[in-house]
């Protein structure tokens, strides 16, 4: 592959990578999880950082993907070309299962591919996390709920009739990037898994309740620590 177009590394890339969507969350995780983090990328506002993980001293890169499957697929594709071999999406989701509450953690076993990127990659109706990485993540995040999620291109329609249909198909949560990441990882032969925190819930009429910023920051740190532990195991 030619030199990456969207990532312009200014620090070494670790073979293991955390993939939050939000650049601000990437900075938060770098401050919480890395010793002396260095900026890996700032091009296109896709902030990324590399440094020794405080958990084990080994290099870890935390690279934001932006929102949606197209951006996430571009970022992971370029990271793989640069040498990444294991990746965790650490992001947010909306609850489709009413037993999930704000701040709960979800480990994705598979994703219903309701997004255009997975379709363009000919990934099939469902994409799957790497089995071994999924199992290690389940061990590291014991409070997390394992299950099927759905990836979509739409944000504001998640609490509508689509959400009810996806829940009937077995999805417990909805988000926007995991299926594309699973598909890219499978095509490239690298390990990809996904840990999410519930940031939105919906009532019977589809009205959204959003997590507060403080609780989201706490949940993001918990996700990052669990993912780092799984990558180190």
Strands of the widest sheet, in order across it, are 5-9-8-6-10
The low-confidence parts are none
Helix/strand/pairing category: alpha/beta
Percent range for β-strand residues: 25-35%
Number of strands: 11
What is the CA-based Rg, rounded?
Answer: 16 Å
Could you describe the largest sheet, including whether it forms a barrel? 5 strands, mixed, barrel
Give the terminus-to-terminus CA distance. Answer: 31 Å
CATH superfamily: Nucleoside phosphorylase domain
Q: N-to-C SSE series?
A: EHEEEHEEHEHEHEHEEH
Q: Could you tell me the CATH topology label.
A: Rossmann fold
Mean pLDDT metric:
94
Short recap of the structure:
With 233 residues, the chain is α/β, with parallel strands linked by helices. The chain has one domain: Nucleoside phosphorylase domain (Rossmann fold). The protein is 34% helix and 30% strand.
Structural features, described:
- Helix 2 (69-82) packs parallel to helix 6 (178-188).
- The model has no long low-confidence stretch (mean pLDDT 94).
- The protein has 7 helices and 11 strands.
- The chain has one domain: Rossmann fold (3-Layer(aba) Sandwich), CATH 3.40.50.1580.
- The protein is an alpha/beta fold.
- The chain is 34% helix and 30% strand.
- 52% of the residues are buried.
- A 5-stranded mixed β-barrel has the order 5-9-8-6-10, surrounded by 4 helices.
């Amino acid at each position: 592959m030619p030199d990456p177009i969207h990532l312009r590394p200014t620090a070494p890339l670790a073979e293991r990578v955390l993939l939050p969507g939000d650049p601000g969350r990437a900075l938060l995780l770098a401050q919480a999880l890395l010793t002396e983090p260095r900026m890996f990328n700032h091009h296109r506002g896709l902030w990324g950082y590399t440094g020794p993980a405080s958990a084990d001293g080994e290099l870890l890169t935390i690279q934001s993907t932006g929102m949606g499957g197209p951006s996430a697929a571009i970022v992971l594709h370029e990271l793989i070309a640069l040498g990444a071999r294991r990746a965790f999406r650490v992001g947010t989701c909306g609850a489709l299962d009413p037993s999930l509450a704000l701040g709960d953690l979800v480990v994705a076993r598979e994703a219903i591919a309701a997004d255009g990127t997975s379709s363009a990659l000919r990934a099939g109706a469902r994409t799957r996390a790497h089995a071994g990485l999924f199992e290690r993540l389940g061990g590291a995040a014991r409070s997390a709920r394992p299950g099927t999620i759905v990836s979509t291109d739409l944000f504001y329609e998640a609490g509508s009739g689509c959400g009810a249909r996806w829940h009937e198909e077995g999805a417990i949560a909805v988000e926007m990037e995991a299926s594309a990441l699973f598909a890219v990882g499978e095509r490239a032969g690298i390990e990809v898994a996904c840990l999410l925190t519930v940031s939105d819930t919906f009532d019977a009429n589809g009205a959204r309740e959003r997590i507060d910023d403080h609780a989201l920051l706490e949940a993001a740190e918990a996700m990052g620590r669990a993912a780092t532990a799984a990558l180190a195991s």
